[in-house]
Inverse folding.
């Protein structure tokens, strides 16, 4: 990169910014997923107290991250996807369709 006029310090600073950006986005994504999981788990268990606590936590998350807020549509989509995965799981293991087909083909081969 030095031949293009970038100093090692500039490259290091850029890589540090990229790493920080990834870390922050990864934490936000994981927190958002965990909050939606909490609502789903409470709903499936019929636990009203846990449901209330999960929605309170979502409200706090939404206040802090309005551009990445959890809304009713995203919750519905999350629940629909979770239920689909449960229905498609084989022996408690979910595999995407193409991977499931490939795995079944390999397992069907004689040893």
């Amino acid at each position: 990169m030095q031949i293009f006029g970038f100093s090692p310090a500039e490259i290091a600073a850029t890589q540090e910014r990229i790493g920080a950006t990834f870390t922050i986005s990864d934490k936000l994504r994981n927190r958002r997923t965990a909050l939606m999981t909490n609502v789903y788990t409470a709903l499936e268990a019929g636990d009203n107290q846990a449901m209330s606590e999960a929605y309170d936590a979502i409200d706090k998350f939404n206040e802090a991250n309005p551009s990445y807020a959890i809304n009713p549509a995203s919750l519905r989509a999350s629940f629909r996807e979770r239920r689909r995965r449960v229905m498609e799981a084989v022996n408690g293991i979910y595999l995407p369709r193409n991977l499931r087909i490939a795995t079944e083909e390999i397992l069907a081969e004689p040893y």
Q: What stands out?
A: The chain has a mean pLDDT of 88. The helical segments are 8-45, 48-64, 72-88, 97-108.
